[in-house]
Amino acid sequence: MHKKVLMSGNHVIGEAAILAGCRFYAGYPITPQNELAEYMAEHMRKTPGGIFIQAESEIAAINMVLGAAAAGARAMTSSSSPGISLKQEGISFLACDELPAVIVNIMRGGPGLGNIAPSQGDYFQATKGGGHGDYRTPVLAPAHIQELADLTMDAFDLADRYRTPVVILADGMMGQMMEPVIFKTPPPRQYDESYVLKGKEMGKSRFIRGLILDAIRMEEHNWKLYRKYQVMAQKEVRYEAHLIEDAEIVIVAYGTAARIAKGAIKRLREEGYAVGLLRPITLWPFPEKELREIAKKVNSFIVFEMSTGQMLEDVKLALEGRAHIDFYGRPGGVIPTPAELAKVIAYKARRNER
Amino acid sequence: MITKTIFAGFGGQGVLMMGYTFAQAAMMEGYHVTYLPSYGAEVRGGAANCTVAVGDEEIASPIASEPEYLVIMNKPSLLTFQNRVTHGGVIFLNTSLADIKPTRKDVTVHEIPLAEIAETIGVPRGQNLIMLGAFVRKTSLVSPQSCLKSIEERMKGKRGAAWESNRRAFMAGYEWGQSK
Amino acid sequence: MKKVYSRPKSLKPTKFHYCPGCGHSTVHRLICEVIDELSIADRTIGVCPAGCAVIAYNYFDVDMIEAAHGRGCAVATGIKRVLPDRVIFTYQGDGDLAAIGTAETLHAANRGENFTIIFINNAVYGMTGGQMAPTTLTGQFSTTTPFGRSEKLDGYPIRVSELLAQLPGTVYIERCAVNSPLNINRTKKALKKAFLYQMDNDFGLTMIEILSQCPTNWKMSPPDACRWMEEVMMKEYPLGIIKDVTAIKGAE
């Protein structure tokens, strides 16, 4: 067990990754995640076998990660929104080639160059397979720094277990903020090495490819990936249910927005509103069943996001009209206060009663 | 209960170090803590500030829209932040670099001549720790022992001449707080 | 009777899909001969491009990975850094290397990544059907320069080898061709020298540029394509060593 330390999210990701056995990092500077690349520059090169490359672009970085993953390394890259857009080609190739890798997105305001303030505008891109073609990536959305450390370690295991790129989706606040953290000691890496290219050594030569010209065989590959995603959807859903038991209104929020929601819930409960929170920790796979379960007792949901409403669509799909769904969003890098959110929810609650 | 403090000044005054030292001390005492620095374009041009939230319960937002405490190291920071502090809150003001008074009449103001105190004790670079000492004495959010331990931690346990200067600066501030 | 010619061991016994007279098959064979002669088939990893050689893994009996268009040098960087004792080569065309992948190529060279680029220059986009390449000659016809490449409208042909030779990270660059037996032999020597350098060192990029015929898209017969290369293409892209700071003498 490691000692409790006060660390920023960006540094925590770096440290957790190295502890999890990540030995290859390539990235390109972009605010607000520069501290992660800087941490890797120092600590990867101090770690035996650790490789750090400041790439010429985000596109190059993700493709270096692809090469490193093919060569058997635990590999990671990180960026923020505009840079993640550039990486989509590589993420699509990783998904097709079935190579494990971890991609960190410390989201900022967008679209376009946007700003460097915390935002949640990349939900669609992360959860719906942001690049071309028919694929998904598991998306982990931490809401505090300890969870960020734990999920970073878990991301590498998930990537290995399903041979898939895994996305950690946090925002600028999670990257910059410090909180106490205790790093776990992760178990040693366990994975099926059969895909790793090392030179054919004494066996047969192998290749990793994404081009499958024959449509029937490409379809087979698509269904194979789909079945893998179905298994993930069955087994890998994670969420936190907070004060759900007696709730009459349930907020659905993730990451930084979920923290603010908890603050709002505290205020609302003091005012006598029975409000709870469902916080998806995996944004894909999404906790659909759990939402439907809650909807058996609760008729009023409020989706709260730092966007104009993206996860909202998944909540609607999950509930299929079973309950009333409201939405409150602050896009563009605005972080509402718990007091503001509490006011909005109290207003909506009174209006819905009428 | 959660208490929020904004530490503000310009780069080089040790503003972030002051906030971090305090936050780490609170962590050592077992509190929930968040520390949020200003970053990016916000700090180009020299401004530096950080927000520390300390509480005995989970902290929802690390941002302080209405902080209980404001620690102000220079005049521009006073102008930027004085309207944010909550009704009945407290402003710690470095009068050596702020020649104006806060316009807020509903808050308590502690005026601390950091340059003067630093000169008296012969630690010209210890102004942030003098301020922290006074802050800790007046707020009692953490113990002075935890703060000293936190400073030591920052210096990786080295108890050399630099440690001694830092300790002296912190204690000078603490004693100033006691006397006022 | 003495056997004087046979298929190299590391070339799979598969029929090539390349067009009649195409240079790719010759280059594939040369690479395999070199791999066999250096006995490195068990520790070589190749990176194939998007382009006509995209399924090169069907021919090379070594470990291979396919890179996205232009990303060969980034993928090779990742592999080589993780497995520094393996022999890594990228096989890239002119569009892959010098248009969409310019940044990856230039920066791998600038970092002195210790792998070998095998650069196939046929002055045209082959797989997509004969569009202008960065190396298409001034005045040359292609499907996207139907009036001939105009310097004013389409830019100049890029001499990639000369460009990369400027960078301290490159150690050996030679331009070869596969249009005649003499040039084919020279190409093989150059490939061997590049691989040898890579095996003996831990820093420095090596690149062999190979002028390669594309009779189909040049709309010529194979013999005419070989002649056109000699008479026209080599004026723009003269053969020979562009840069050599290795201590290795030409491999025999």
Description:
The complex is a heterotrimer of chains A (354), B (180) and C (252). Chain A has 354 residues and is an alpha/beta fold. Chain A contains 12 helices and 15 strands. In chain A, the strands form 3 sheets. Chain A has a 7-stranded mixed beta sheet, with helices on both faces. A 5-stranded mixed beta sheet of chain A has the order 10-12-11-14-15, with helices on both faces. In chain A, strands 1-8 form a two-stranded antiparallel ribbon. The mean pLDDT of chain A is 96. Chain B contains 6 helices and 6 strands; from the N terminus they run βαβββαββαααα. Chain B has helices at 15-28, 75-81, 114-121, 127-139, 144-154, 161-179, and strands spanning 2-10, 32-37, 47-55, 69-72, 90-94, 108-112. Chain B has a 6-stranded mixed beta sheet, sandwiched between helices. With 252 residues, chain C is of the alpha/beta class. Chain C has a single domain (24-132, 160-244), classed as 3-Layer(aba) Sandwich (Rossmann fold). Chain C has a 7-stranded mixed beta sheet with strand order 2-1-3-4-6-5-7, sandwiched between helices. In chain C, helix 1 packs across helix 7 (181-200) and helix 3 packs across helix 4 (102-110). Chain C is globular and about 50 Å long. Chains A and C meet through helix 3, helix 4 and strand 9 of A and strand 1, strand 2, helix 2 and helix 4 of C.
Please tell me what the overall shape of chain A is. globular
Average pLDDT reading of chain A: 96
What letter string, H or E per element, gives the SSE order of chain B?
EHEEEHEEHHHH
Question: Which strands sit side by side, in order, in the main sheet of chain B?
Answer: 2-3-1-4-5-6
> How large is the share of residues in beta strands of chain A?
15-25%
Strand content of chain B: 15-25%
Strand order of the largest sheet of chain A: 3-2-4-5-7-6-13
Going by CATH, the architecture of the largest domain in chain A would be 3-Layer(aba) Sandwich
Mean pLDDT across the residues of chain B is 93
CATH homologous superfamily (4th level) name of chain B: Pyruvate-ferredoxin oxidoreductase, PFOR, domain III
Biggest β-sheet description of chain A = 7 strands, mixed
Extract low-pLDDT stretches of chain B.
none
Number of helices of chain B: 6
- How many structural domains in the coordinates of chain B? 1
CATH class of the largest domain in chain A: Alpha Beta
